[in-house]
From TrEMBL:
Regions crossing the membrane: 162-186, 193-213
Protein name: PepSY-associated TM helix domain-containing protein
A UniProt-annotated Pfam family: PepSY_TM_like_2
Alphabetic keyword roster: Membrane, Transmembrane, Transmembrane helix
Record-linked PANTHER family: INNER MEMBRANE PROTEIN WITH PEPSY TM HELIX
Provenance organism: Novosphingobium anseongense
Xref: InterPro entries: PepSY_TM-like_2
Length: 214
């Protein structure tokens, strides 16, 4: 006897199965993308909350040098008002080589000094050039690995590439959370504590904020 033709699945069930597969796929993809970032931000959330107790004392290195005579004319005093502009290319190259720094970005030009700030995650640095004498001084402070990770958490002095990563990471976390909420809703009838736990995740921080933060 020929095998009976299988009856087609109801369209409603087929559509529900399709969307369930889509939600599960987006949930695991977003979790994979955001996993390392979530671990990093969870750890640095703790270290930021206890920054005063965890971060060590900054290590400071100072250095002094003399701008070569042929280059001093590039920073010589003039009658122009205070301004912000990049270092001349030859001065920038000399500063980068002498002080082992990235000498890009805008410097602050006053009548007697050219000051180049060099902030970075986990530390800070600057180079100062005396426009009259050509004396160059620098200071570099390093606050350690924990401070570096804390600054990455805040996006402090981290550059445009890291800012783009934070945007992508935030979107991945949002997809992970929303698809997780849908999966909670789909399985909540078998897990009675689902919505009380979800409500607790909202009520507890809201109550702390209202009662204790003023």
């Amino acid at each position: 006897m020929p095998n009976p033709t299988p009856s087609p699945k109801p369209r409603g069930k087929s559509r529900k199965s399709f969307w369930l597969k889509q939600i599960i796929m987006w949930h695991w993809m977003s979790s994979a993308l955001s996993l390392i970032g979530l671990v990093l931000f969870a750890v640095t959330g703790f270290t930021l909350n206890h920054a005063a107790d965890i971060e060590g004392k900054a290590q400071i290195v100072e250095h002094a040098a003399q701008v070569p005579a042929p280059l001093q004319s590039l920073i010589a005093p003039d009658d122009k008002p205070d301004t912000k502009k990049p270092l001349p290319p030859k001065i920038a190259a000399w500063v980068a080589k002498e002080f082992k720094v990235q000498a890009g970005g805008e410097a602050e030009w006053s009548f007697d000094t050219v000051y180049l700030p060099l902030p970075r995650p986990g530390g800070d640095a600057w180079v100062s050039l005396d426009r009259e004498t050509g004396e160059a001084t620098s200071e570099d402070s390093d606050r350690g690995v924990i401070a570096y990770l804390n600054d990455l958490h805040k996006g402090r002095n981290s550059g445009g590439e890291w800012s783009w990563f934070l945007d992508v990471f935030a979107f991945a976390c949002l997809v992970f959370a929303l698809t997780g909420l849908v999966l909670l809703w789909l399985h909540a009838h078998n897990r009675k504590t689902t919505w009380p736990l979800v409500a607790g995740g909202f009520v507890i921080p809201a109550a702390i904020a209202v009662i204790f933060i003023h």
